[in-house]
User: Which sequence fits this backbone?
């Protein structure tokens, strides 16, 4: 349940601010007697170490060296000029003072590289790295770099290497590095890469911005990227490459039209480029700006297995996949699911590369490593404007291609399977990506990822917000019988109302056929999932509009809601599964929908638009006898919805970017009524953030240059 987190977060941050500014120790008054009644400070203030004549690098290093394990090094506002590298130490956290703008600026053309061969249990948050790169490079199998989180950081500028090859963040043989909510910005003077991960495990890149900020400026001035995210490296003797990797909820943008300079063959080398990986999940990202040329592409994937590409939105180019003959990487493409993505080719015709979803295999591959291709699923992808699916292998039968809208299918060598594909094959990962929620009930967002090590029981790797850092725990996972979750999603909400978010999904239940299962969060992770209700009648509208989580009846317990069938014979309805804390009770909450094509493009928005404590449902639909376009809102009552028009004044961007980036939901003015916002148009048509602000019964349009709401799910 994301709703309400912001308010609680503000209170927590305010409390952090008060304690965060208590005098650091050591420093301050070293001769003063320690007050034994006061617990040792949890923070060390860099400002205490500022001394005339001492350079900033020495000052920062002195503060880091003075910090004890468990303490946080707090940077007061300012620009710290680094003429040499600093070295973070394990077991400490590093953060900007609350609300402070803190810049670590590297000196000289080459800037500064913060190299670490060992670093454990560290969170670095809120710092801006200007001309400063981070290299976390351990020896193979050393487990020397473990559980490092970069959160809400900014990386900009940096040295220009040949072919734009230098990365802001480089990982090698790391375990459990997370990049969360960070910005990677490269202007025309500083082209290069974003994050490069070489042969690392449990890497997560989530909710980060490459080439843009949350404001989504259409000029994309900081999108001079060769590649936003790279995963490479593999050891054929051990089978290890990048393993258990999640890329979820990021935006990567390349400045349109910049191509590559003459003589710089690889200065454009795909938005996300991955090879040699095992269990790579790429979920809910948005990519644009890479060309539909051999050098471009929103994603390039090859020589890997167990890859899940789900619910991403791509513009200007799509996905290129293949197996390349090689001495040092697996010559296979197995168990790959490319489903429910949206690809907007902007009307391109005649393109051969990245023109949708393309696969080919190098003819030199002789199959020493077994069959090159097996279990490839390409399904449910939406082709917005042009594009095609192309498969070129003599093992075409290994490909199942089904349910992709408006896409031409070309299979060059034999027929691919185009019907009766299994809805969720055994190898599919219904829990791909991360699940976000407040799982420990402290008012701050956490996330969990499902890990399936070879031959081991699966477990949840939980990243729990804790003070200035992250507590990482392994929770047992009982996730059998979840096949339907690949279609209907995994829902996060506080279904029993204890303040901790829980998980719900649909699947097979003993004696009941299909059912909804709920795994309640407790002190030690998720309890074994229990059946909470029969699945009930689902229809084509169920998967079309998805399953929604909200507290629709206002009893402080989250409920499920989806389009389905009610009564006998079944009529279309809003099927409400209200929680009583131990199970769901299904009732009809009426129908009265009036869809338009915009309903499908933008989807449903669930929040308390009327401000009465009950969640409501809004969407772009039709209103009135004439069916005029409107924001159609189904306002929750005691036992059903009251529907009304909340006005129109919808003014999306002219170039389709509003649909690409989606519409956000949140309370921008803090009056308790949820509002909507998106990158659209204002005034005489200039690109701005356009908000539809609720007064409890209708929306009023308002504009800003800034993004004020969290990105859409
Ligand atoms: Ca709960
Ligand atoms: Ca409820
Ligand atoms: Ca309401
Ligand atoms: Ca509001």
Assistant:
């Amino acid at each position: 349940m994301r709703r309400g987190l912001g308010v609680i977060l503000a209170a927590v941050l305010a409390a952090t601010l008060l304690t965060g500014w208590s005098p650091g120790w050591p420093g301050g008054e070293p001769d003063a007697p320690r007050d034994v009644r006061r617990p040792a400070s949890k923070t060390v203030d860099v400002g205490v170490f500022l001394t005339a004549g001492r350079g900033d690098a020495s000052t920062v290093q002195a503060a880091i060296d003075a910090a004890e394990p468990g303490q946080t090094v707090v940077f007061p506002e300012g620009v710290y000029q680094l003429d040499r590298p600093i070295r973070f130490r394990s077991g400490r956290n590093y953060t900007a003072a609350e609300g402070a703008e803190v810049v670590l600026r590297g000196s000289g053309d080459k800037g500064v590289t913060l190299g670490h061969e060992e670093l454990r249990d560290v969170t670095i948050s809120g710092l801006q790295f200007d001309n400063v790169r981070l290299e976390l490079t351990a020896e193979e199998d050393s487990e020397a770099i473990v559980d490092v989180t970069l959160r809400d950081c900014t990386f900009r500028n940096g040295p220009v290497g040949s072919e734009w090859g230098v990365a802001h963040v480089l990982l090698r043989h790391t375990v459990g590095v997370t990049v969360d909510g960070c910005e990677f910005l490269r202007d025309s003077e500083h082209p290069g890469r974003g994050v490069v991960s070489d042969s690392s495990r449990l890497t997560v890149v989530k909710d980060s911005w490459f080439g843009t900020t949350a404001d989504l400026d259409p000029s994309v001035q900081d999108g001079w990227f060769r590649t936003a995210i790279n995963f490479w490296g593999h050891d054929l003797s051990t089978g290890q490459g990048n393993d258990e990797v999640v890329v979820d909820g990021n935006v990567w943008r390349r400045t349109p039209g910049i191509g590559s300079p003459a003589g710089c063959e690889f200065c454009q080398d795909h938005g996300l480029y991955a090879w040699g990986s095992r269990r790579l999940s790429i979920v809910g990202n948005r990519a644009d700006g890479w060309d539909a040329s051999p050098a471009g592409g929103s994603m390039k994937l090859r020589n890997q297995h167990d890859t899940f590409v789900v619910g991403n939105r791509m513009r200007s180019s799509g996905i290129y996949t293949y197996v390349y003959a090689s001495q040092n990487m697996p010559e296979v493409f197995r168990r790959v699911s490319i489903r429910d993505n949206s690809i907007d080719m902007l009307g391109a015709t005649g393109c051969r590369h990245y023109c949708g979803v393309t696969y080919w295999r190098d003819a030199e591959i002789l199959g020493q490593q077994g069959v090159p291709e097996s279990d490839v699923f390409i399904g449910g992808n939406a082709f917005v404007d042009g594009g095609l699916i192309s498969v070129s292998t003599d093992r075409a039968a290994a490909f199942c291609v089904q349910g992709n809208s408006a896409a031409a299918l070309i299979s060059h060598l034999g027929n691919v399977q185009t019907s009766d594909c299994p809805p969720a094959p055994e190898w599919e990962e219904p829990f791909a990506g991360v699940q976000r929620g407040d799982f420990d009930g402290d008012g701050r967002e956490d996330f969990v990822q499902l890990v399936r090590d070879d031959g081991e029981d699966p477990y949840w790797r939980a990243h729990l917000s804790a003070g200035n850092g992250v507590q990482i725990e392994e929770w047992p996972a009982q996730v059998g019988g979840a096949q339907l979750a690949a279609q209907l999603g995994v829902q996060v909400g506080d279904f029993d109302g204890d303040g901790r978010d829980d998980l719900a999904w649909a699947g097979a239940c003993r004696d009941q056929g299909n059912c909804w299962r709920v795994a309640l969060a407790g002190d030690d992770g998720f309890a074994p999932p229990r059946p909470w209700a029969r699945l009930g009648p689902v229809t084509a509208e169920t998967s079309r509009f998805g399953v929604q989580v909200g507290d629709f009846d206002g009893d402080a317990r989250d409920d499920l809601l989806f389009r389905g069938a009610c009564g006998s014979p079944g009529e279309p309805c809003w099927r409400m599964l209200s929680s009583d804390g131990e199970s769901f009770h299904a009732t009809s909450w009426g129908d009265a929908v009036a869809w338009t094509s915009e309903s499908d493009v933008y989807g449903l928005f669930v929040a308390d638009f009327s401000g009465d404590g009950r969640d409501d449902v809004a969407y772009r639909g039709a209103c009135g006898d004439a069916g005029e376009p409107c924001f159609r809102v189904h306002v929750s009552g005691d036992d059903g919805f009251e529907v009304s028009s909340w006005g129109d004044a919808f003014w999306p961007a002219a170039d389709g970017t509003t649909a690409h980036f989606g519409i956000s939901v949140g309370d921008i003015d803090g009056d308790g009524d949820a509002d909507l916002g998106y990158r659209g148009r204002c005034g005489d048509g200039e690109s701005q953030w356009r908000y539809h602000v609720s007064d409890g019964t209708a929306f009023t349009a308002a504009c800003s240059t800034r993004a004020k709401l969290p990105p859409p799910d």
Q: What stands out?
A: Residues 595-712 form one domain. Residues 5-20 form the longest helix (16 residues). The radius of gyration is 26 Å.
